[in-house]
Amino acid sequence: MNQKLKALLDAFPVPHDIADECQKLNTAQQRALANFLHYEIVGGDGFLLRDKSEMDFYQFNHGLNELVARILALRYPMPELPELSPIFGELGTLAEAVKTLRTHGYLVADRKLPVSTLAAVRDEIGKFSFYEKRPGATLRSGEELYALGASGERLESGTFWLRDLDQATHSELLGSLAFDPYILAMVTQYFGCTPVHVQTNTWLSFAGKGDKSQLSSSAQLYHQDKEFTKFLKVFIYLTDVGADNGPHCYVDGSHIDELFTRGVPFSTRLTDDEVLKYFDANRLKSVTGPAGTIIFGDTSAVHKGLPVTGGYRCILQFEYAASLYMSPIEPFPDLPVARLEAIRQRDISTRLVQNYDSAARDRYRGFANTSKSASIMDRVRSRIQQQIVMPWKLRRLKRVA
Asked: Which Gene3D superfamilies match (predicted)?
């Protein structure tokens, strides 16, 4: 076994059965796991490690992610959550739902956001500001965009993105959803350890011109996320989503036989025809549903949002990770003391709010500001790395089942 890994496993510490599984990992996976455990034991800013160690993510396949979650559970076990949600009512048993999620990578929940909560959430988002990813675009409020959606007007860019994620993160209403016992119970049982809340986001999509560059920037081509080692997203439809309204699509079970194990670099955008080179057509699924539909998705699975061809779509998204190792996401400002105390009173580990750290946020921004802005040559080098060098490196990686 890698000697650094052995020392870190002893320091964590882990039981013999987990140590034996670590012993069976290949050399590259042992090195990647050692880097991960060093971060978890020593601490520091996970975002500072991304540029240095990002290739390690190619070692974190489904099997290693599951092993990592078992190791984390030794220090951050699943919290005992209330059996009653103030929003969704009795939790009941979630075992079958979690089993489905683990098997398929996605689950359309058997409960929906109540009508009153849905209306309140839409009102809250109506106050937020949104932008388009095109030069000269002006900010628009959520209320303005609701009116545009009702008018059926076709727009140049198609998608409007939340300008200030902190506004959503620190909204008491959206926070009550992000930390709701039902949502947390599903995420926690999927991980097997205490999660870290890493994002609250929302966006609106309209019928646009639909060329490949626009579809790519709007996440409307198939792709695989790899933002953390193990992570889960919760999507909530805030409008009715039929076949014309841009339903969320995914490849069933592709969080297990991941796209990168087939030689495709992370975040590569693929058309439908390209995806069918790697997966059978019967594995391609889409999720339609009324406003209030809740989707749990491990987006290490291949997924996309279909382009909107009529009406519009508004989505609320929460994201959770098992660890902030190599996090690409800017930390949030500190939680207000009263909200932090309310979480502590529920006997939930503050691991859940580890990403709420104003000091780390300042360090992140300092790090980002000192990074050299991308020149034309930088972009050319990045394209060569993504389309030529990375696929070659992936072919050399030993594929692990």
From this structure: q2cbj1_9rhob like domain
Could you read off the pLDDT of 94-104 as tens digits, one per residue? 999 999 999 99
3-state secondary structure at position 401: coil
Res. 134 pLDDT band, cuts 50 70 90: confident
**57, amino acid identity:** F
Q: Which candidate, 240, 297, 250, places its Cα nearest to that of 272?
A: 250
What are 388's two structure tokens? 């030529």
CB 214 within 8 A of CB 298: no
Amino acid at 280: D
The helix, strand and coil proportions of the chain, stated in percent and rounded to the nearest 5, come to: 45, 15, 40
Strand order of the β-sheet with 284-287 is: 284-287, 248-251, 303-305
| DSSP code for 254 | T
pLDDT tens digits along 149-206: 988 777 766 899 999 999 999 999 999 999 999 999 999 999 999 999 999 999 999 9
CA nearest neighbour of 218 among 154, 291, 283, 131: 131
Secondary structure E strands in 271-401: 284-287, 294-297, 303-305, 312-321
**What domains, with CATH codes, occur in the chain?**
3-75 (no CATH), 84-357 (2.60.120.620)
Model pTM score: 0.91
State the Cα–Cα distance between residues 12 and 21, nearest whole angstrom.
Answer: 15
Is 145 in a helix, a strand, or coil? helix
Mean of the pLDDT values across residues 205-214?
A: 66
The packing angle between helices 27-42 and 62-75, to 10°, is 30
Q: What pLDDT does residue 400 have?
A: 41
Inter-axis angle of helices 62-75 and 16-23, nearest 10: 150
